[in-house]
Please model this.
Amino acid sequence: MCGIVAYVGGRQAYPVILKGLKRLEYRGYDSSGVALLDEELAVYKKKGKVAALEDSLVGKALQSRIGIGHTRWATHGEPSDRNAHPHLSASGKLAMIHNGIIENYAQLKQELLKKGYVFHSDTDTEVLLNFIDDIRENNHCSVEEAVRIALKRVVGAYVIVILDRDHPDTLIAARKGSPLVIGIGKGEHFLASDASPIIEYTKEVVYINDYELAIIRPDELILKNLGNETITPYVQKLDLELAAIEKGGFDHFMIKEIFEQPHTIFDCLRGRLELEQGRIRMKGVEEHMDRLMKADRIIIVACGTSWHAGLVAEYLFEELCRIPVEVEYASEFRYRNPVIRPGDVIIAISQSGETADTLVAIEKAKEQGALIFGVLNVVGSSIARASHAGAYTHAGPEIGVASTKAFTAQLAVLTMMAIKLGMEKGSIDAVRARHLLSELAEIPEKVRQLLENTEDIKRIALKYSKARDFLYLGRGYNFPVALEGALKLKEISYIHAEGYPAAEMKHGPIALVDDQLPVVFIATRDAYHEKIISNIQEIKARRGKVIAVVSEGDMVIPQMADDVIFVPSADEVVAPLLSVIPMQLLAYHIGVELGLDVDKPRNLAKSVTVE
Ligand code: F6R
Model:
């Protein structure tokens, strides 16, 4: 949520920052801006996407070897030029970018207003910046010292980077609860919210931890804690290639990422699923096997699409491991004073590993003695570092704002984990375990087959793209897929959609059905097949339009449905890995048909680092 980039070194800062902002645009695109320091400290900012800022700066001589840039997802104050970052302090000496929320900003603002400060934006950022600058002036101290004093009073989450007019070779950065990576070059440093703006310049990076402050010059990186003690930076090597963050010939990141799924699922299974030996190797699970086997209860915390993966996992763990599971929205769980017992295992699912609600939820559970297991995509992310153990999903960078390949990789990890635990506990027998392992191993190839012919999905997308509402229905393992299908459509096409358990529909949503309403049934062959056929009949009897996702070879449902999408047959335990793909494609093609920016849907951001 909000992307920040900064540079100090021998290059021209503006091109480096601009390119970085484009890479980070998935984190927010309400406005963007840069501050550059040559003879003067100059700030340029613009409402809208980074391209609007770039256009506004064409022809300007933007000389500077140091600079900061920001792409915003609005929290305090509407998207506008004046609320865009960087902000300038009242003294004109400091410019600052900020990612996060300062919760006690109203109180700090009151104090500053009493001192005569005038604010030019509605942001909490401008308040924090002036609070820092006020401390600097009154205490006659350095910016670094002022930041340290200020942050002791600040409640909330932040990454800040400050450019000081009087120190044209120094950036000051600090973090709590929002991510910050520093790339180390030769005589230069790159700062960013994630590694994507850094990767083409250097692979050596330092991840800044909470309550750490960095003083960055071309040849120097000093890390300190808020108590002013120096910390040795832990330099890590980035395991990321430039090609992974480019579109590679596709029109959008979203469709590229959908088509990557045969590989991403394969990568996720590789080295873990050993079909011949009939076993699964997962280091994070093995190291905590005793605790996991004895778990009284698994509590899954996540948000959005990751929460849907958690719902699938509820079916998996209950069926295969006979462990009770609760699936919680992290944002509710963290505030609910939940009962957590030492025998509980918390599974946190997150693509970004930075979602603020999920992070705080696991920290609370950790305090109460639960084991925290992360199912995460981004290596070294905040949730990864806060977990006791975990398994990475290895889906590679997901840049399209709507999650696709990360979801299927989460399902792959959770399915392996459930099969492994089930085998270990003896709650599934060897024959069933072998069958499930081979079903899982076949998924990458089946996804590839499914993606070979997407013409029917495109045709259906075209046919229904003008619909006002959609209903998505599924049962069992396919119920979370219905929720995910509805979420994808809402995000990408702005069409209202609801996901429901198919049988629950008659308790209310059936009132929506008329001859204009497309109803998507996720009806692959499973234990509830006969039941869902009855549900389809109920919709048809009310003249609703049925779009059915069915297993290849199904002869019954295609007779009733208005439109049919076939997916390869699979055991119901692994079926969501296949049935979700038409959901992603349907949303994508409807969004494209409507002329929308599918990679950057309005109001959204990829990494939700505010609560
Ligand atoms: C939907 C989507 C969001 C995320 C949610 C959690 O397409 O991407 O709903 O799933 O914001 O994000 P992570 O998984 O990064 O914690």
User: Anything to note?
Assistant: The chain has a mean pLDDT of 94. Residues 303-306, 350-352, 355, 358, 402-403, 487, 491, 608 surround fructose -6-phosphate (CB under 6 Å).
